[in-house]
């Protein structure tokens, strides 16, 4: 049976791992190599690295850094941040990333999803969607690292992106991000109902129960989190144990007590 | 000793595959030279992407001939993910395309929708114990491997099914025809279990080489 993945998300800014709250006020957490080694040892299911600093300068996540981190990992590694061209995606995959994560570039030019899927295979293409609640109810996609409103419904965009060739959707709630107050279950439900590709739910995990709820009620294929792993004594394996106890199949780990 | 050669034809994460062999103490070289591939002790065919583009790349570089010759002389080949699918007679991905035809069978879409499942099949899934080949011996706490694919290999001869995995249907997740091996999952991204399977395959390949030497 396919297992529900538990995925730490590392946000990189100026070469250090950061964790903002609601996409603002970032705190420096650790150096990326140290944290990647810890997660490899703890046998996480997968790892996501997003460079949230480089996009402002029109650059993409550094391929040399990706290579040095990928060399430490024997689990799948997805990387994103400032990716705007197919050439950059190919370069990152060649340097050891299994998947590339695209957000603003995909929204502005959905054709790039189809082009990338044709060359790299759709399983390599993760479309990241950042969304927030609207005052009138409903949800709205934001691009440019949460700064630019688009007026587009995330479920509609997720459906279009997967039709274009996205292999997975990484869905982040801007409202819940870094708050550790729980996932936005309605947002996740709306996107999982609209798509048939796997959806990775991110943003707001603060307790072990939150993960269970987003899988059970949100129908997420995988759960992702940053703050809870950085700032609380919660580990991915504790999340997996909670999921297992709730009857959600997860991959067993060889490492006890981590 | 020519050793392990990873076929570098632009369709696989050669670097990750090289790294996993290094982790089990074995050097593997990447090559796009059909002669090097023909002479290797083990030729590894990785692969991600589209079947038709990958088979075209193998044909245009003459690597298809090198692999076919290896198979004819019982020299070992290991296909990983799309590399396993390329061993088949044909694929139904985006039209009908002829494969290397080293293991008879067809690559078909996973019927996920009729089982209410999402595609691609992405994540950790277990190799079923029943009927699994010796290459899966010695797994400890779990039998989970990392999968990412939307198509599966349907063997014409059930004796070539080396293991099955379940996703809506029980599908063939590993093939073996004597010295030709194929793994649908990514051993290079499956931590200890992936290393265990590769170690087992190397042991079998080397045992057979000694036996025939």
In short:
Chain A is 34% helix and 25% strand. Chain A is of the alpha/beta class. In chain A, a hairpin with a 4-residue loop joins strand 8 (139-143) and strand 9 (148-149).
Tell me about this structure.
The complex is a heterodimer of chains A (about 260) and B (about 210). By secondary structure, chain A is α/β, with parallel strands linked by helices. Chain A has one domain: Aldolase class I (TIM Barrel, Alpha-Beta Barrel). In chain A, about 35% of the residues lie in helices and about 25% in strands. Chain A has 10 helices and 12 strands. An 8-stranded parallel β-barrel of chain A has the order 1-4-5-6-7-10-11-12, surrounded by 7 helices. In chain A, helix 6 (about 155-165) packs parallel to helix 7 (about 185-195) and helix 8 packs across helix 10. The longest helix of chain A has 11 residues, at about 155-165. With about 210 residues, chain B is of the alpha/beta class. Chain B has helices spanning about 15-25, 35-40, 50-60, 65-70, 80-85, 190-210; strands spanning about 5, 30, 40-45, 75-80, 90, 95-100, 105-110, 120-125, 145-150, 150-155, 160-165, 170-175, 180-185. In chain B, the strands form 3 sheets. Chain B has a 7-stranded mixed beta sheet with strand order 2-1-3-4-13-12-11, sandwiched between helices. In chain B, a hairpin with a 2-residue loop joins strand 12 and strand 13 (about 180-185). Chain B is globular, with a radius of gyration of 16 Å. Chain B starts with a strand and ends with a helix. The mean pLDDT of chain B is about 95. The interface between A and B is large, with 38 and 42 residues.
């Amino acid at each position: 049976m396919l297992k529900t993945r538990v995925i730490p998300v590392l946000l990189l800014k100026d070469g250090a791992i950061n964790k903002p709250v609601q996409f603002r006020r970032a705190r420096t957490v650790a150096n990326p190599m140290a944290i990647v080694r810890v997660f490899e040892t703890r046998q996480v299911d997968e790892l996501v690295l997003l460079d949230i600093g480089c996009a402002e300068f029109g650059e993409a996540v550094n391929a040399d850094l990706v290579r040095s981190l990928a060399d430490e990992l024997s689990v799948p590694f997805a990387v994103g941040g400032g990716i705007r061209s197919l050439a950059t995606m190919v370069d990152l995959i060649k340097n050891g990333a299994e998947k590339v994560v695209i957000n603003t570039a995909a929204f502005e030019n959905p054709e790039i999803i189809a082009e990338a899927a044709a060359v790299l295979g759709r399983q390599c293409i993760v479309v990241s969607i950042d969304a927030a609640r609207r005052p009138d109810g409903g949800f709205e996609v934001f691009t440019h690292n949460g700064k630019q409103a688009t007026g587009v419904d995330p479920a509609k965009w997720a459906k279009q992106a997967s039709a274009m060739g996205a292999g997975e959707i990484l869905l982040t709630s801007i409202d819940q991000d870094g708050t550790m107050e729980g996932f936005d279950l309605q947002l996740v439900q709306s996107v999982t109902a609209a798509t048939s590709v796997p959806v990775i739910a991110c943003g707001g995990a603060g307790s072990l129960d939150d993960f269970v709820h987003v899988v059970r009620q949100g129908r997420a294929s995988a759960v992702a989190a940053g703050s809870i792993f950085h700032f609380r004594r919660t580990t991915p394996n504790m999340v997996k144990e909670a999921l297992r106890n709730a009857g959600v199949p997860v991959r067993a780990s060889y490492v006890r007590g981590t | 000793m020519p050793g392990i050669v990873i076929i570098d034809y632009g369709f696989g994460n050669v670097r990750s595959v090289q790294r996993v062999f290094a982790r089990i103490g074995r050097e593997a070289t990447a090559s796009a030279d059909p002669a090097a591939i023909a002479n290797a002790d083990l030729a590894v065919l990785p692969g991600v992407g589209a079947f038709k583009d990958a088979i075209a790349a193998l044909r245009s570089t003459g690597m298809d001939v090198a692999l076919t010759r290896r198979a004819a002389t019982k020299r070992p080949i290991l296909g990983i993910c799309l590399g396993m699918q390329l061993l088949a007679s044909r694929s139904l991905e985006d039209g009908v395309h002829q494969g290397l035809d080293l293991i008879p069978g067809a690559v078909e879409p996973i019927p996920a929708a009729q089982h209410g499942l999402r595609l691609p099949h992405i994540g950790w899934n277990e190799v079923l114990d029943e009927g699994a080949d010796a290459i899966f011996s010695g797994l400890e706490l779990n039998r989970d491997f990392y999968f990412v694919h939307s198509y599966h290999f349907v063997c014409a001869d059930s004796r070539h099914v080396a293991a099955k995995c379940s996703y809506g249907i029980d599908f063939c997740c590993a093939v073996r025809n004597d010295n030709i091996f194929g793994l649908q999952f990514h051993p290079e991204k499956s931590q200890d279990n992936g290393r265990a399977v590769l170690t087992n395959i190397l042991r079998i390949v080397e045992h057979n080489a000694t036996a025939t030497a």
